[in-house]
Amino acid sequence: MTRKENVRITILQIDTVWGDPAANIGAAERMMTAAPASDVYVLPEMWATGFDTSDPAAAFTNEPLAWMADAARRRGCAVCGGVIAQCADGAYRNRHCFVRPDGRITYYDKRHLFTYGGEDKTYVPGTQRVVAEYGGVRFLLQTCYDLRFPVWMRNRNDYDAVLIVANWPESRRGAWHVLLRARAIENQCYVIAANRAGTDPSCRYMGDSAVIDAKGRTVAQAAAGGMAQYVRAELDMDALERFRSKFPVLNDIDDFELRL
Asked: Measuring CA to CA, how many Å separate 200 from each of 74, 116, 214?
């Protein structure tokens, strides 16, 4: 594998306007312009529409992914975030896309659909774990509710950082803080978590976007108040490699077979 570089990350914690992709694309563009240059920009789950589980056919549009590809090309960076995807079989999937500046897209379809919110009634779950490599760094792509399922996220020595995009509500923010750190510690990796701010017809969101290191320490954290803002951090890959070499937890992981 190519040498891991120190990657600059910017989380774009936007206040998603319900059902208005044009407004949300504009907000993301303005926030990206206001932030210093980064290697990877991360947007929340379903960032351009809101977490719409009632009618994905009405909410679906190609515009968010097209803008992500254009922004990545213009800025020479990677852009990732969650969108509604309409597939060739007619089904809709909650898709986390990682878009590179050359236009290549790696995508992950959310495995654990949020049955409490009815997501399983209108979307089809994914079946594959997906790792996107960029700058020599291996990113495991995950989405919101997946955070509660450690077996699915278990590091098999195949990634360096988890990219989690989310619509995680204020009512469960305590679990958000604990689970981010648990996943970082047990998988000896960075966790980059992009959550939305604001409100939608069902929930209030405090954001709490963060970057956590492999020891569970906060590298960067959104300011309190649930406001739209960007969060910046640099992943120190040399430090991660030294920690893994000195304390090789991942060499002692249990072997198991995951049956879907």
From this structure: 31, 16, 33
Let me know if 97 is a catalytic residue.
no
- Rounded to an integer, the average pLDDT of 188-192 is 98
User: Please, what's the largest Cα pairwise distance for the chain?
Assistant: 52
Question: Which pLDDT belongs to residue 50?
Answer: 97
Distance of CA 9 to the CA centre of its chain: 12
Selecting among 80, 97, 144, 189, the annotated active-site residue is 144
45 in catalytic set: yes
Indicate yes or no: pTM above 0.70.
yes
Residue 2's pLDDT is 56
| Structure-token pair, residue 94 | 């909650």
Distance CA 188, CA 204 (A): 31
Average pLDDT over residues 18-29: 98
pLDDT for the residue numbered 258: 83
Q: What phi, psi does 94 have (nearest 5°)? A: -85, 105
List the catalytic residue out of 45, 80, 97, 189. 45
Nearest to 196 by CA among 56, 55, 24, 77: 24
Q: Is 144 annotated in the active site?
A: yes
4, 77, 80, 110: which is the annotated catalytic residue? 110
